[in-house]
Amino acid sequence: MTAYRVEIRVVPRKGILDPQGQAVAGALHALGFGDVADVRVGRHIVLETRAGDPESASRAAREMCEKLLANPVTEDFEIEQVVPAAT
Amino acid sequence: MKFGIVTFPGSNCDYDAFHAVVDTLGETAEYLWHKDHDLRDSDVVILPGGFSYGDYLRAGAIARFSPIMQEVVAHAERGGPVLAICNGFQIACEAGLLPGALLRNANLKFVCEQRHLRVENTDTRFTSEYAPGQIVRIPVAHGEGRYVADDATLDRLEGDGRVVFRYCGPEGAQPEDAAPNGSLRAIAGIVGENGNVLGMMPHPERAVDALLGSADGLPLFESILARVGA
Predict the structure, then answer these.
(1) Is the CB of B90 inside 8 Å of chain A's CB atoms?
(2) CATH number of the B2-228 domain
(3) Secondary structure (H, E, C), chain A
(4) pLDDT tens digit string along B88-97?
(5) What is the pTM of this model?
């Protein structure tokens, strides 16, 4: 078993109104970033877990997302990175 | 009739529910701690409002895994009535007792005020004491009450008469901004497939006494007594 650091990105699904993202887009426009077309605000989860290999760590993270970390009705998730955890 | 009122860490409407059931209706109630595995012979379970687990991750996401929720889900599957109010509604959706999800209010504001609702279906065990189409005044108090589901689910809910409460104007008009939170189709409350689980964002337990602003929530509890107790 090795300790892995898994990084997960959870974002509101496209097509679902994200008022937080819209508010941030409005603020960016007000700051002069007029080229910003769309903002969605999600969350970035970093967790450490023990697993036999990176694939099983990733598989476990996927299951965690399906069960708890993301809401399948409104959010999409992506396992961004699985790296050995610094010890 | 006995009501079981679940207390999660962060619940804050459990006392209001107790007051409605015991002091106003004269029924019995017991608080059920979220770590327990026992509904203590409750006939009706209330999932009350509040901020269970600080709304961390998503409102209701962590509470749905509390030990008591296994018993609540089993109770619901046996056809037992569950009244899920506000945070309770969020928990019920996360637990899969009801379809859809409740997201941040479209205007990003926490809304705390009396709102008008239309009773869309009186043939449920939660609404039989209302008149069809009755407009009621019941307070809302939430920051994440925007009901969202895909179109197919919304159509099915509408078709099956499972949209029980809808936000509306004082006279029953249906302006674009009737919902204080941007809920799709202005949905305020729905029942599950078998009609025994009601989820709603407004607080009927805070509307049981005209002296405190409204008694329009009372018929909801009386419906439970009439339909479930019979």
Answers:
(1) no
(2) 3.40.50.880
(3) CEEEEEEEEEEECCCCCCHHHHHHHHHHHHCCCCCCCCCCCCEEEEEEEEECCHHHHHHHHHHHHHHHHCCCCCEEEEEEEEEECCC
(4) 999 999 999 9
(5) 0.95
